[in-house]
Amino acid sequence: xxxxxxxxxxxxxxxxxxxxxxxxxxxxxxxxxxxxxxxxxxxxxxxxxxxxxxxxxxxxxxxxxxxxxxxxxxxxxxxxxxxxxxxxxxxxxxxxxxxxxxxxxxxxxxxxx
Amino acid sequence: xxxxxxxxxxxxxxxxxxxxxxxxxxxxxxxxxxxxxxxxxxxxxxxxxxxxxxxxxxxxxxxxxxxxxxxxxxxxxxxxxxxxxxxxxxxxxxxxxxxxxxxxxxxxxxxx
Lengths: 113, 112
Fold this sequence. Notes:
The complex is a heterodimer of chains A (113) and B (112). Chain A has strands at residues 4-7, 10-14, 19-25, 32-38, 45-51, 56-59, 62-67, 72-77, 86-92, 102-103, 107-112.
């Protein structure tokens, strides 16, 4: 199976600054890496994903980087806003999609005014 | 957006009790999943299914059974509930070639 490590578990940043969350995986065959955001009392929702044929992907203030050699991927949130406060989960799959995802333990992002 | 509905939303049962969590999706997705969410553990896959009558074992299946009766309906069964199964349970679905998991609203189970 796959193992996904996610750090940090809690991240506090000042509003307007950037936030970075890092994940590592073990299975070199993993080829799909999504990020889910879970707001308090809500269900997780996909915010961005990247496949193994890419090294970088960006959308609406979110940047995902993938380093296949190091088996590491990361989420960067630029110009953080109060609405970015949430739990973030990284995940990995060797099956190319949502099938058989292994999630990290999550990062609680707190945006401080 | 995909609609995934779970019931009950909240449940309290006693140790040794019998619990069924229900999930229905109305978007013709083939794949359905049951996850549990616990602080410090994230989301862990219990069981999943590729279609009606199909069942696959996830990462933490011990103490759980599941049945996929139709394309729409996926049930999680706890036949002898234990306090360690106190958790927030999420059902999710995805289409065959899709990348996105659509989660339900969650079912909070407390076993006393």
